Amino acid sequence: MAALDDLDLEALDFGAVEPREFARIVKGLPGRRLAELMAGPQRRRVLDEVFGRMHTQFKPEAAGGRDALIRWRITGSGTEPGDGDDVYETHIAQGACTVTSERTDRTPQLSLTMAAPEFLRLVSGNASGPTLFFTRKLKVKGDIRLAGGLTYFFDIPRA
User: Fold this and answer.
1) What is the C-alpha separation between 139 and 33, in angstroms, rounded?
2) Is 101 within a domain?
3) Do residues 55 and 96 lie in contact, with contact meaning Cβ atoms separated by under 8 Å?
4) Rounded CA gap, 158 and 94, in Å?
């Protein structure tokens, strides 16, 4: 995948990249390139784009009548643990998924913590939640059953 390794990620307009193409890009990039991307100025734009698309990828029939708040903590933007982490919340209720781009005072049923490259792999279908969990790249706090079924609530493109 030399072409992807040469891709100018700083200039890429992630808002114009379709989900399947995004999955292909994530799959083809070496871990160091993903880490560099998510440590640079594009980080927040990429995260905002991914979370901004969640409501369109949401499958209400899969979630059923579930009402759940999920807090996502994406680590790795600062030099100290917890320094500069990005926090988003997704609320699944009444057949819809809404996203908040910050931590709220609400108590989540599930909190997920992972580094940015692992997050990108997970949401692009290039990593499995259970595998990330069992290799300690994903920390789960709260409703483990919700965590296990979360990927079924979204139409996750595959590369």
Assistant:
1) 23
2) yes
3) yes
4) 27
pLDDT band at 157 (very low <50, low <70, confident <90, very high): confident
Residues 6+ apart with CB under 8 A from 153: 58, 59, 62, 63, 92, 97
Between the alpha carbon of residue 83 and those of residues 47, 75, 86, the distances in Å are: 17, 8, 9
- The answer as to whether 158 is a domain residue is no
Asked if residue 159 is part of any domain, the answer here is: no
Given the DSSP bridges, would you call strands 110-115 and 68-75 parallel, antiparallel or unpaired?
A: parallel
Task: Name residue 100's beta-bridge partners.
Answer: 89
Q: Could you read off the pLDDT of 46-80 as tens digits, one per residue?
A: 999 999 999 999 999 999 999 999 999 999 755 54
